[in-house]
Amino acid sequence: MMNKQYLLGLDVGSSSVKASLVETESGRCAASAFFPDKEAPILAVKAGWAEQEPESWWQYAKQAIQKIMAEANATGDDIAAIGISYQMHGLVCVDKDLKPLRPAIIWCDSRAVPYGERAFRELGEEQCLGHLLNSPGNFTAAKLAWVRENEPQLFEKIYKIMLPGDYMAMRLSGEVCTTVSGLSEGMFWDFRENRVAQFLLDFYGIPSSLIPDIVPTFARQCTVSPSAAEELGLRVGTPITYRAGDQPNNALSLNVFEPGEIAATAGTSGVVYGVLGEVGYDPKSRVNTFAHVNHSIANPRLGVLLCINGTGILNAWMHRNVTFDMSYAEMNDLAAQAPIGSDGVAILPYGNGAERVLQNREPGCSIHGLNFNKHSRAHLVRAAQEGIVFSFCYGLEVMQQMGMDIRKIHAGRANMFLSPLFVSTLANVSGATIELHETDGSIGAARGAGIGAGIYRDTHEAFATLARLQVIEPQAAHHEASQAAYEHWKNILTNTL
User: Fold this and answer.
1) How do beta strands 6-12 and 79-86 pair?
2) Averaged in consecutive runs of 10 residues, what is the pLDDT profile of the chain (497 residues)?
3) Rounded to whole angstroms, how far apart are CA atoms 32 and 18?
4) How many of the other CB atoms lie within 10 Å of CB of 195?
5) Cα(336)–Cα(342) distance, integer angstroms
6) Which of 233, 216, 116, 131 lies closest to 172 in space, CA to CA?
7) Are 152 and 144 in contact (CB under 8 A)?
């Protein structure tokens, strides 16, 4: 009897590296593991800095792979292809021997903000937004400009620069390559010219030779080298056939590929990632726009990324300070006892730093309309959840202004999406159908590998077995009241700003 064939997915995060084995035939996840068990360290030499050693990602991946191979009783010969998801916007610099020259500057490091701002100011908004679809901001290109100016001797030794996923693929294969999607998230891609953004490289004084060769997102990008095979217990020549940043990959994991489809998460912070079918940008730069995993010149597919800092963190604050005697499930039941609109109580959830969607303003969290004689903690808890939903819908309006027709929102059943009130309110205000799924980034990366290897004919076949746990349709009976509550909240936000 033939052994089962698997797809190996790796998700290189800043807190851990997760690995999953997905059976090619059934689509079932046979084993998953992450390492380390406790959150991986982030080096902060100075305030606002955040670095990690790229070698640590490799060691974490090694531990997680060994664990899942043992759990599934699999060998290297059973792995058909490998896919990689990774923390976006990081910078890895390697020398000619492909050794890191310094720790990776990761996504949450803010040292490069002035470099992005200077490029935006001196090159001009029209040039940057028209070609990059974003401000150069604090992305990978600006981080590299910081290295050039502040570590010139090290900069001279750089052979290639990589994103974290490119580094993982390089360690697996010994080959250096990247994707258009990856280059776009680093501000290295010119969408108008459909090539590397030479004008930004010239502005920063960065040689184009530092950019790796470009491979398709779904393809035989490189193969496992003999040394990596020996170290990881894999088969020499196993193809790496997919890679993407964590947010595009999360969208892929949730089967979000077509215009108008949305992938959403709502943990401590919230992310709304929508697919746009034409090349465009927000003139106020309130959202970021990157090449989605299935983007092509002939068939544009752009991922529009909205990040909201104050989402689940508000719900957690309410739980700690208002409903500390309840479980989260009991707290959700309590919120449902208050009517739609919370009898006039409205909460702005922006208490976790400056919000890009508000053009980097920081209004803080505030409670409005509280009446000590009428309102209870049920009203507060509901107003908090409604405020989080409304912050999502406020961002969705930006996407609609860019031409996105929002019809469906996909999410994993986790965090805020465990609350029936949260989910129904989002459906009723946005008018979109919400589908909740059981998946994660490493499983998505494995499915992506199956597409890139040709094991699945297309995305429909790859996601035919994706577990859809629940479908929530907008309720016409509640639309008017929900919309009125949203308009009331939006008026308060406008007046506050």
Assistant:
1) parallel
2) 86 96 95 94 93 98 97 97 97 98 96 96 96 96 98 98 98 98 98 98 98 98 98 98 97 96 93 95 94 96 95 95 96 97 98 92 96 97 98 96 94 94 97 95 97 95 92 96 98 96
3) 7
4) 13
5) 10
6) 233
7) no
**Residue in the structure block whose two tokens are 């979109």:** 432
DSSP states of 357-406: GGTTB--EEEEES--TTT--HHHHHHHHHHHHHHHHHHHHHHHHHTT---
DSSP secondary structure letter of residue 305:
E
Which bin fits 360, alpha (ψ -120 to 50), beta or left (φ > 0)?
A: left
Dihedrals phi, psi of 133, to nearest 5 degrees: 70, 5
Taking the chain, what is the end-to-end CA distance rounded to the nearest angstrom?
67
Nearest Cα to Cα of residue 233 among 116, 75, 123, 114 = 75
**Residue for token digits 């860019």?**
402
Q: Which pLDDT belongs to residue 3? A: 79
Chain-centroid distance, C-alpha 176: 23
Amino acid at 179: T
Predicted pLDDT at 2: 61
Residues forming a β-bridge with 92: 162
Tokens linked to 254: 């949730």
Residues in the chain: 497
280 in helix, strand or coil? Answer: coil
Residue 57, CB-side half-sphere exposure with 13 Å CA sphere: 30
Q: What is the DSSP string of 16-35?
A: -EEEEEEETTT--EEEEEEE
- Which pLDDT belongs to residue 9? 98
Beta 17-23 vs 29-35: how paired, if at all? antiparallel
| Separation CA 210–CA 221 (nearest Å) | 19
Which residue from 290, 390, 378 is spatially nearest to 336, judged by alpha carbons?
A: 378
**In the structure encoding, which two tokens stand for residue 459, read together?**
């995305």
CA-wise closest residue to 257 among 307, 301, 296, 216: 301
DSSP output for 168-188? HHHHHHS--EE-HHHHHHTT-
Rounded-to-integer distance, Cα 401 and Cα 104, Å: 36
* Sequence-separated (6 or more) residues with CB below 8 Å from residue 473: 427, 433
d(CA 94, CA 97): 8
Phi/psi at 371 (5° precision): -115, 120
Element (H, E) at 141: helix 140-150
What DSSP state is assigned to residue 37? S
Cβ count within 10 A of residue 29: 23
**316, two tokens:** 């957690």
pTM above threshold 0.70 = yes
